[in-house]
Amino acid sequence: MIKITVVSGKGGVGKSSIAASMALVLSKNRDIVAVDCDVDAPNLGLLLGVKKEGFSYKEVGTKEKASLIEDRCIRCRKCVDICVFSAISWDNLPIFDKYLCEGCGACQLVCPVDAIELIKVQNAFIGFTDTQYGFPVVGGQLKPGESGSGDVVTLVKEKAEEIANKRGIETMIIDSAAGIGCPVIASVTGSDYVVAVTEPTPAAFSDLKRVLEVVEHFNIPYGIIINTWNTNPAFTEKIEKFASENEITLLGKIPYDKAFIDALVQLMPVVAYDKRFKKLFKSILEKTLAEVEK
User: Fold this and answer.
1) Phi, psi of 232 (to 5 degrees)
2) Of all helices (H) and strands (E), which one includes residue 278?
3) C-alpha distances in angstroms, 275 versus 23, 131, 221, 259?
4) Domain range for residue 78?
5) Do the Cβ atoms of 159 and 126 come closer than 8 Å?
6) So what's the pLDDT on residue 145?
7) Same domain, residue pair 71 and 214
8) What is the pTM for the complete model shown?
9) Which of 61, 105, 121, 286 has its CB surrounded by the most CB atoms within 10 Å?
10) Is the pLDDT of residue 147 over 90?
């Protein structure tokens, strides 16, 4: 199976919009599954016209939380002192804050009477549905206040692979979270190619370099897309020079156009909203697939 992951070092550069249009254009020539791996703020389904009630969700658990067995506690306070997350307060007994607890198990280790247990918690949802464009989209959502996004991303990808295997799908388009944290690492792991999206601003360019370091760590080939390139042509040239000097493939440059905003409002990929962009995204995908097949 070919796995193409779309990343961005900085949020708000159009990564998910680009991933949605790439998925739609690619689906015209091959069977695909789109995967939303931004489980903290998923929106790929929305961009493909799917609302929350359209997903078939189930609860999943990837984290543990500490819990007190009161009749064993000898009130030694060792658990309070060891917790670096300030998740344990004291009121004649240790009190565990489920939102601050990271499930590290340090308190359990120092407890001399085994009065603390780690309990599996349901910290997220994962689900899938078929889009109006004829391909499935899989995604997940962390519950409010919960952690473990990297582990949830792994489960989302496993669900996508399960669906792909059942349907004979051989191509996966993954929309990663922005940044370089755990969910991004989990998204990129196992990818055949990474598409990195940036925009012509100093902040986006700086963050692009950081996320490319993550991709290079996993020895995954990649190319870049410069979004809204015409808002700052001079800085676009700077990014192009960086790509050329470092032998990075420039997959495409996407201009600023109000059609992208209108498409977002209509919950549509821009290639479905405005046919003018089909040629551009087809070119981007042709270059991407050529890179994958090298």
Assistant:
1) -155, 75
2) helix 278-292
3) 15, 19, 30, 10
4) 64-121
5) yes
6) 81
7) no
8) 0.90
9) 121
10) no
